[in-house]
Structure formats: structure tokens, C-alpha cells
Amino acid sequence: MEIVPAILVRSFNELKDKLSFVSHLSGVVHVDFCDGHFVTAETWPYTYGGFEEDIHALHILNEEEGMPYWDTMDFEFDLMIKNPHLVLDNFIKLGAKKIIFHIESVKDTGEFLEFIEGLDMYTRENTQLGMAINTTTDVSLIKPFLIHMDFVQCMGVAHIGRQGEPFDERVFDQIKKIREMDPEILIAVDGSVNMATAPTLVDLGVRKLVVGSAILDDSDPVSVIEEMRSLVD
Q1: What are the Cα distances from residue 22, in Å, to 2, 61, 95, 119, 161?
Q2: d(CA 65, CA 54)
Q3: pTM, whole model, 2 decimals?
Q4: Residue 75 maps to which CATH number?
């Protein structure tokens, strides 16, 4: 069972602070990037105008500095932005080990599939890819992509891009349908994952839990992680 702490930050300083906290809990961190268009929320660097406007983002892209904790943590970037494949290189340069695309964020799924199929060998060998899907989306939409994905991320909330949202039980049916389409693919759930929802998710075959406020807001986050890991023997 993989438990991945998730952070959503509005500034580079907040990014450093939260990575400092998470670094004591896990070697992997899930970072949400929100552009204010695909979702209403904005996160760093979009709160400062994007990669071209934020000084820290520019320095990282120009290899003048690195992401905080780049040498001790693996970054999983969740791209809640419009047409993320068009700016994928920026996130590769930020040090992504895993990239998550949202199927609803692309205007043309056929064009997006061609992009995924045409990714260079270096990117495919060094970066895991995940496909996220909202609770309101027909799972058949992601079927052509499964062969190219390392995992699928089902969203556990109806309104993505914010932490603390209520759990959406429609995800249960989605998990079952995805498991029928591909019995082997790793299924993750992100959104309202806590000890009230995690046991059912695990029973349905979910083996990766992306956890935000249930870890970050708890007085004993280590115990929360250990308890979730114990759900699978």
C-alpha cells in the first residue's frame, strides 16, 4: 500500500514549508498544480502569473536553482491545468518523477492520445504517467490511454483543486469499472481520503492513497500513515 502526502500551495515559501514538514513523513510527495482555468483554484507558480513570471520557477527552469528537497524527495505532480501536455517540459524540468494528467483538461482527446504515444523514450523511462478522472466522467473515456499509463487516479471528490471537500461515493463504481477494463493497473484515489473512506477503497482494490488534510492537519501524522498502510497485510 502506497500512502502519498498531498500538498497544495500558493507561494514558493509555502512550498518550502510544506515540503519541510512532509519530508519527515515520506520520500514521495504529491504536489497539485492549479491554473485557475481548468479548476477555479490557483497554486504556485500560477498565483504569480505562471512559469514565465515567477522568479523561482524561472530559476528552476534555467537550472539556476532546484526545487526544495529535490535531492531527497520524489515529486509527483498533479496537473490540474488546461492542456497540460503542451507545457509538460516545464514540469519535467521541475523534477517530476510522476506526472498526472486529467482527461477532462484536454480539448481534443485524440490529439492528446497521439501526444502520449509520441513521447520520447527518455521521458517514458524516467517518468511514470498517471491518468486522473473525475467522479462525473464516463470511465470509458480513459480506456484507450490505459496501455500507456502506469496508474489511474480516481478523484474522490466532485470539486477538485481544493482540500477538505466531501467524499463522493460515485468513485466506488468507477473503481470497479476500471478494474474490469484493466485488472492489473494500479488504481489510486485522491480527495477526501481518510480513515473513514480508506477501508472501503482498499477493499475495492485501491493500492495507492493520496492524502492531504487527513495527514497535514492531524497532530500525529505518522500514526495516520501507519494506520492506512496497515489496511493491507
Answers
A1: 15, 23, 17, 31, 19
A2: 13
A3: 0.97
A4: 3.20.20.70
